[in-house]
Amino acid sequence: MIEFDRVAKRFPDGTEAVREITLTVPSRRTTVLVGSSGSGKTTLLRMVNRMVEPSSGQVRIDDEDVATLNPVTLRRRIGYVLQGGGLLPHRRVLDNIVTVLRLNGVRRRSAEERGLELMDTVGLDRALARRYPGQLSGGQQQRVGVARALAVDPNILLMDEPFGAVDPIVRTDLQNELLRLQSTLDKTVLFVTHDIEEAFILGDQVVILKPGGVIAQQGTPAEILADPADDFVATFIGAERGQRALRVEDHNGTQVVVDGRGRPAGVLAEGVPRQ
């Protein structure tokens, strides 16, 4: 479990990125921080592995204040995935995946065996092991980044807009892959995105942040959709514009779900009761 206890962050130029946030990230669940630029979501995430130090307050992992831990040791036990994968371009795929294992003293052969197993886990062909990141597609690079983050079997996985730089089809594939992995691995995932649709797809808990680092609302996707906390949240999730008002239309015998603007949102599956 990760706990943010009245954490705040003010940068030297006076910018207040996070304003006294108290938040619990439950174990073995996915919590998504969602908001526009300047809402403090990435700052919050980076406080967990001490890439950013809070100006006040505490960040605790299983009741242990991270400020008391060696930052290098802390980072090596936490998985971290960022946009673009953050891969070392001059190192081959397998070498990228086993980087932390090798830093932790694992023998090369054992590390590479583990790396190949992780390629299977994230859906990468082992034939790519000897290629360089520049020879991979964007989606493949992100999978390498996830494999590297999982290499030391961390309890916590931090993901900072990892799917933001890929096309929509690949993004959907990666979202589905993360859902599959989480159902198997049961990690504590803290995920950052600016996309509310992605937040609702991935999050067991969704935390909507306002500019200036203030929590506007937190809860399950269903709770937020059913009862937006205020006008800001309603606008952010599209409720005020009627985008969330779905209805069913019959198209040549097929039940098509459309949104408030009449745009198709999906097909009603057989056996799903209509309201």
Describe this structure in words.
The protein has helices at 41-48, 71-76, 93-97, 99-103, 108-121, 138-150, 168-185, 196-202, 221-226, 231-237, and strands at residues 2-10, 16-25, 30-34, 56-61, 64-65, 78-82, 156-160, 188-193, 205-210, 214-219, 247-251, 254-258, 264-267. It has 275 residues and is an alpha/beta fold. It has a domain at 245-275. The strands form three sheets. Strands 6-7-8-3-9-10 form a six-stranded mixed sheet, with helices on both faces. A hairpin with a 5-residue loop joins strand 12 (254-258) and strand 13. The radius of gyration is 20 Å and the shape is globular. The mean pLDDT is 90.
Strand order of the largest sheet: 6-7-8-3-9-10
Structural class call reads alpha/beta
Helix content: 25-40%
Compute the gyration radius: what is it?
A: 20 Å
What is the straight-line distance between the termini? 38 Å
Shape: globular
Strand segment count: 13
Biggest sheet, open or closed, and with what strands and sense?
6 strands, mixed
* Helical stretch tally: 10
Q: What are the segments in which pLDDT stays under 50 over at least 5 consecutive residues?
A: none
Give the strand content: 25-35%
H and E string? EEEHEEHEHHHHEHEHEEHHEEE
For the residues shown, what is the average pLDDT?
90
